[in-house]
Design a protein that fits this description.
Blueprint lengths: L6 E7 L3 H8 L5 H4 L5 E4 L12 E8 L1 E13 L3 E5 L5 E10 L2 E9 L6 H6 L2 H26 L4
Antiparallel strand pairs: 1-7, 2-3, 3-4, 4-5, 5-6, 6-7
């Protein structure tokens, strides 16, 4: 059996796990941190906040515009969220609080459950998604730092 390529990276983010999780569970916010440059926005009827089993549609662009419907397949409040679309592969975020104001965030592209591992290999999904994941985590860190500077001094 041919296994599909996967990708993963971790980064220490200067924000509480609960705050990061809120961002990840809010599809309308995904374009803020997307490192692939493909996420454009949400489709109509996308929930404001995701939960286990939620279905949500995204407006995407990879050369040409397209739409994709995802389903949340893993959900542990404040710690883990993952979704997949018709291709079967899974995008996953794991959050491990380090202290009240910082979190180790791991993003994974899990191609194991893919229905088309050969297609993923031909598209060089592993290397392309590795770069996108690393950029997403950089953008997530930038989001966390901007968020701190945007708050009024207390």
């Amino acid at each position: 059996m041919l296994t599909a390529p996967s990708a993963e990276a971790s980064r220490l983010i200067p924000a509480a796990a609960t705050d990061i999780f809120e961002l990840l569970a809010s599809p309308r916010q995904h374009a803020l941190i997307d490192g692939s440059g493909q996420v454009r926005g949400v489709q109509e009827r996308t929930p404001e906040r995701l939960s286990a089993g939620s279905r949500f549609g995204m407006e995407m662009r990879w050369g040409v515009p397209y739409k994709i419907l995802n389903e949340v397949v893993e959900f542990e409040e404040g710690r883990r969220i993952a979704w997949r679309h018709f291709g079967g592969h899974v995008w996953r975020y794991l959050l491990v609080p380090v202290d009240p104001t910082s979190t180790e965030v791991t993003e994974q592209f899990d191609a194991g459950p893919s229905h088309a591992p050969v297609v993923l290999r031909l598209l060089r999904a592993s290397s392309r998604n590795q770069r996108a994941i690393e950029q997403t985590l950089i953008r997530l860190e930038d989001w966390a730092r901007r968020r701190d500077t945007d708050r009024p001094a207390g």
